[in-house]
């Protein structure tokens, strides 16, 4: 299994605190030694940092933890390989361009008998993970249904959510997907989220002794949602997602949700 | 104008020395203050570091300069904006997936009246530079001509080279393009290259006082080609490319060339 981390915010926000908690699980407090990656959106552009090295030993991860890149949408992943060797091309998040936008995706879980079920035409996997194949299949379905970019993207994400049960039937499919404006989370068995907004309080990482006082770091209008496989802090109320449930965030706010 | 830097090598080689020379031009010895980017291939995977900040002030650039990421194919760019604002989505290199491979591209120059001439369908620009539009147009032509991945990629690169004069007619088009195995360089007015092989000697950067003794850094079988807008070292013989000329490298060796 792997761990996912996502963020949606209404003002550019750094994710150093949450990312630091995730990184501890990349070889130190957790078994996820097979690489890590993180993608930050800035406008329509995005930049990714990736490493097939364990995150707890990665110099690049140290930089990202320390360097406050501010973003309104983030997708991150640390990997414990099951399908696909430990290589850069198998390291999440995966990115494709669709309609002149960057689409970013990360998956936690494992699929079976997916080779035939998940054929794609427009988008092809570069590595050999079940995860990237599922991503290409999802985007292929989207491109078939919407040959041109719709002006309203919320229905596109609801369409994607409607495809996820097909992937869940193939195994465990916990997922984060973003176009830089929306962040979609789909849960099979392990995904939690929380929204921070005024009045802000203090929070303590479970995996290290870092305590943050969000009151000092935010303005009263900030809305920041964090999504993670397991809660990252011990003193906040994380919402556990149900099996088959999906949630869609925009600018930190929950804009749509559904489930089986 | 911008500056390009590319590398093709037969063993994974770090580009710290050449990149350090390039970075000096990003705001210190040169006027290219509008961002920088570099893509390293590792197998079929690649990772990019990008920043809309001047490279001479970028903490991420400092890490890349110091941290020896070893690669057989590298594409890098520092930007002095002409078309398109200083934003992350306008920062080179640009990347797209075609046939399950990462294609990476950077452009130096400026095109005019390109909006109508360079329409594309499969690949769409994310930012608003002439450069990315030309990249999408090139890949669209390739996908039209080769709906499936050919087993031999050299003809694909020769086909791409045959399209470049059309772009040169629209203005200045110096370009680097790689699929991770081949590196293609096309010149309108400013591009130089050299191949380092045994017996290796010393080299001194023009833009700083860094001297390297490649004898100490290499084995006698290493073949490393560096391509740059302007020569990076003062004591080596760089080959200046002619207008309309293209060169194609694989594993450091020149495998094909042509021109008008």
TrEMBL record, chains A, B:
Asked whether the keyword Magnesium is assigned, the reply is no
UniProt keywords, alphabetically: Glutamine amidotransferase
Signal peptide extent: none
Disulfide bond among keywords: no
Q: Where is the Glutamine amidotransferase type-2 domain?
A: 2-260
**What protein name does the entry list?**
Class II glutamine amidotransferase
Give the species this sequence originates from. Answer: Fluctibacter corallii
Q: The organism's lineage? A: Bacteria, Pseudomonadati, Pseudomonadota, Gammaproteobacteria, Alteromonadales
